[in-house]
Specification:
Layout: H1 3-13, H2 19-31, H3 33-41, H4 43-51, H5 61-77, E1 81-88, E2 91-98, E3 101-107, H6 113-124, E4 128-130, H7 135-147, H8 162-171, E5 180-181, H9 182-188, H10 195-203, E6 216-217, H11 230-240
Parallel strand pairs: 1-4, 5-6
Antiparallel strand pairs: 1-2, 2-3
Helix pairs in contact: 1-2, 1-10, 4-5, 9-10
């Protein structure tokens, strides 16, 4: 697990800690290769633990952890994500779908199919195979770029954690052509101290158009970061009609 993932978990679960303690922890993690190496070795277990609900004092935690790990393994053997490509007004997209629902969108950055395949498998923890684009998929994309909205019934974020799902659904409530802060999203989902954790969710968003992380900015109104570059973020907002107040 990367240190920035730990920071997100820290913000989400330790919101009541003093700022100085959080700064000390994150500073150490950034500077300590040994700690980072340990987290990388334990990434699978850490992810499984992070997805478990808070246990009751009397529950068999070890059994629940093992059960959750088994469910993740089963998911990797289950329905694969079909990965294909499509053209949209802002470039070429890689699109992953399961049945009649879209689970992944990503702009083509020149890395090739195998690099995208690996990225999707790591993010969704499912097998990914090459597929052919069905007619409904291109129609869904075309409609999105006409309306800047998508029918919730054609998207699938079921492979994400409840916190991730809540943050993305809050981002989807931001009207086209408008922006909101990470803190606004955190408040919308009932975790006002988790702005940094929200930022991590947006950075790992598997459906960045349908759950519009490009409409999420920092508290000053600056566009902040975007996985596909600030130029793309600004272009998407301008297509929606956004004009930043001067």
């Amino acid at each position: 697990m990367r240190c920035r993932d730990l920071e997100a978990m820290w913000d989400e679960t330790r919101g009541s800690c003093t700022r100085s303690l959080k700064v000390e922890v994150t500073t150490h993690l950034h500077a300590c290769p040994q700690c980072q190496h340990l987290y990388e070795e334990c990434e699978g277990v850490a992810y499984s633990l992070s997805c478990l609900p808070v246990p009751e004092p009397s529950c068999d935690l070890a059994r629940r952890v093992l059960g959750h790990i088994a469910s993740l393994r089963q998911r990797m053997r289950s329905e694969p994500v079909m990965l294909t490509s499509a053209r949209v007004p802002v470039g070429r997209l890689y699109v992953g779908f399961k049945g009649a629902r879209i689970a992944y969108l990503g702009f083509d950055t020149g890395g090739g199919f195998q690099a995208v395949q690996q990225r999707v498998e790591q993010r969704l923890r499912r097998p990914v195979v090459r597929g052919q684009a069905p007619a409904w998929l291109q129609e869904t994309l075309d409609q999105f770029f006409r309306t800047w909205r998508v029918d919730d019934r054609v998207v699938d974020i079921s492979d994400l954690t409840p916190f991730e799902q809540a943050a993305l659904r809050a981002a989807a409530r931001i009207p086209p052509g408008e922006v909101r802060s990470y803190g606004w999203v955190a408040t919308q989902i009932g975790k006002p101290k988790a702005a940094r954790a929200v930022g991590r969710v947006m950075a790992r968003n598997p459906l960045p158009l349908f759950f519009p992380c490009h409409r999420v900015v920092d508290s000053s109104g600056a566009l902040h970061d975007y996985y596909y570059g600030l130029e793309m973020k600004q272009r998407l907002l301008e297509l929606e009609g956004y004009r930043r107040a001067r």
